[in-house]
Specification:
The structure holds two protein chains of two kinds. By secondary structure, chain A is of the alpha/beta class. Chain A is built from ten helices and 14 strands. Chain A has a six-stranded mixed beta sheet with strand order 6-7-8-3-9-10, with helices on both faces. Chain A has a four-stranded antiparallel beta sheet with strand order 2-1-4-5, with helices on one face. Chain A has a four-stranded antiparallel beta sheet with strand order 12-13-11-14, covered by helices on one side. The model of chain B has no long low-confidence stretch (mean pLDDT 91). Chain B contains ten helices and no strands.
């Protein structure tokens, strides 16, 4: 497999459910080894896209390939290459944790996989629950089991569909440590999440989906520079500000002034004018734009 | 390596873990039928000359239990997985539609045979032991369980809710198995209902299976085997076509 073969390749992907267009021509390449984020509001088509990659849904038109293999024609290769953590908290109540993982390994044709099963159970803190029935696991534990099931066959490409929805802080942290480690070891990660700070911290590249179309796709760093909405909060020793700034400065309930600006030159000239008017700044806080601002901005604009 | 053995094993383990419900309960039900009907009818009915009513009834009950349980195994496993959502565990791995079919079918056949053996074992106390014709017995038992296992796969895939599957079971499977000569010979029926019975494939399964035990039957067991074989081929072709198309499983 050449380095240039993308881990995930989709082009012109369309899917319609009755009258609803879930995907309206999505094209996207995710390179091997990337930690890629797929963001978008509910109903944007994230899960549809993932389900097409996983072979759970068939696209109306377009191509989808994993490591160069078509997901329909070469489904054996693509399903072997893909580990999917589904969004729904599903489990099979007939089996315990170890049985679930052994059976799941078996589906991939792996017979003697206990060494790796023990390792994933260890990393996901499932070892002490190995003999528990899945029905008696807490929500967080069920989520860990789903992650473990997706990893039994050591897939080079791992897809996580909102894996931290309703999960406590500890699990979220340990889950991300484990997934980041897998990414460092060369696994490609595709993540969808509603927690934008997670995506910002973890993903090197992000695509934003809205109504079945990609409305932004870039490195996280470039996306963060799209919105230059900075905000300064100022506490002044005066009750009024110079007349030419009155429309730009907003007074908070606690007496602070908020100043939204796109360029630091603006902040500099405000400070100069304040100094000229004999007003001094007692306190100043700067807020940098985060992914949430960018996301909200892009969703509004498109 | 194929994923088939794991799916087959999982399907076996699934019913075996709840064997009280999936094996013991149907055996008890069949035993109750036997107690009631043989008590009421033993002295009054002789369907075939020289064959006691109980000896006549036992093969029918064994076959009925096999049919119902083979159907039950694949259909309830699939509907439960669909309702729970854990069907994705078998849809995500590289299992082919043929492997999927064979695993669910194989487990349904095993469940049917296990229940059939159980029913036969408990009825040995009530009817005199007679060595059945093993060839006919195995041919009919396997075909019957396989047909119903496949019908169960179709029903399990088609049904979207438990009550749809219950309707399938109560309005189709149950009448077909009850009205097929388990408790009576169709020769005792008026001509119209005899003709109707001949259109019911389950009738041939029960009639042929009984032939293996009592050596007498309403129709030629070879004809029955032909009907059963044709049914199995037809239902398998349908099931495989549905699975290949992804009907209601891969949207």
């Amino acid at each position: 497999m050449s380095q240039a073969t993308p881990a995930i390749h989709v082009s012109g992907l369309r899917k319609r459910f009755h009258t609803v267009q879930a995907l309206g021509g999505v094209s996207l390449d995710i390179q091997q080894g990337e930690f890629f984020g797929l963001l978008g509001p509910n109903g944007a088509g994230k899960t549809t896209l993932i389900s097409i990659l996983a072979g759970l849904i068939r696209a109306d038109s377009g191509e989808a390939a994993i490591l160069g293999h078509d997901v329909v024609r070469d489904y054996r290769q693509t399903r072997r290459a893909l580990g999917v953590v589904p969004q729904e908290l599903v489990y099979d109540p007939f089996f315990n944790v170890r049985e679930t993982l052994r059976i799941q390994s078996g589906y991939f044709g792996l017979r003697h996989n206990d060494g790796w099963i023990d390792e994933i159970m260890h990393h996901l803190d499932l070892t002490q629950h190995a003999d528990k029935g899945t029905q008696s696991l807490s929500g967080g534990m069920k989520r860990r089991l789903l992650v473990a099931q997706a990893l039994v066959h050591k897939p080079p490409v791992i897809v996580l569909d909102e894996p931290t929805a309703g999960v406590d802080v500890d699990l979220r942290r340990s889950l991300w440590e484990f997934i980041s480690r897998l990414n460092r070891e060369g696994h490609t990660i595709l993540l969808t999440t509603h927690y934008l700070e997670e995506a910002e911290a973890l993903c090197s590249r992000i695509a934003m989906l809205k109504s079945g179309r990609i409305v932004a796709c870039d490195t996280t760093r470039n996306l963060l520079q799209l919105t230059n909405e900075h905000c300064a909060q100022l506490r002044l020793d005066a009750e009024a500000v110079p007349a030419n700034w009155r429309t730009r400065l907003l007074r908070d309930a606690d007496g602070c002034w908020r100043f939204n600006f796109g360029n630091y030159v603006e902040l500099e000239s405000l400070l100069a004018d304040l100094r000229g008017a004999g007003i001094s700044v007692r306190e100043m806080r700067l807020q940098e734009p985060d992914l949430e601002d960018v996301f909200t901005d892009i969703m509004k604009r498109t | 390596m194929s994923g088939f053995p794991a799916l087959f094993y999982k399907e076996l383990l699934r019913f075996w873990k709840v064997a009280v419900q999936t094996v013991v309960a149907p055996v008890v039900t069949a035993l109750l039928y036997l107690l009631i009907f043989s008590h009421v009818l033993e002295a009054h009915v002789e369907v075939y000359p020289g064959v006691s009513y109980t000896s006549f009834l036992v093969p029918g009950l064994v076959m009925m239990s096999m049919l119902q349980n083979a159907f039950s195994n694949s259909s309830s496993s699939l509907i439960q997985s669909k309702m729970q959502g854990n069907i994705v565990f078998v849809l995500l791995p590289p299992l082919s539609y043929l492997e999927f079919f064979l695993a669910y079918l194989g487990a349904a056949v095993i469940r049917g045979l296990v229940v059939g053996l159980g029913v036969w074992a408990v009825t040995l106390w009530f009817a005199p032991w007679q060595m059945p014709h093993l060839g006919w017995l195995l041919a009919y038992a396997l075909l019957a369980c396989a047909i119903m296992g496949a019908v169960g796969i179709v029903a399990g895939i088609w049904a979207e809710k438990y009550d749809q599957l219950a309707a399938f079971q109560n309005f189709l499977i149950l009448p077909l198995t009850f009205l097929s000569g388990v408790f009576y010979s169709i020769h005792s029926l008026p001509p119209f209902w005899q003709a109707v019975s001949h259109a019911n494939p389950v009738f041939y399964l029960i009639d042929g299976f009984r032939h293996a035990f009592v050596g007498q039957s309403d129709t030629d067991p070879w004809l029955g085997l032909l009907v059963a074989g044709a049914c199995f081929v037809a239902i398998s072709a349908l099931t495989l076509a549905l699975l290949k198309s992804g009907y209601k499983l891969r949207h």
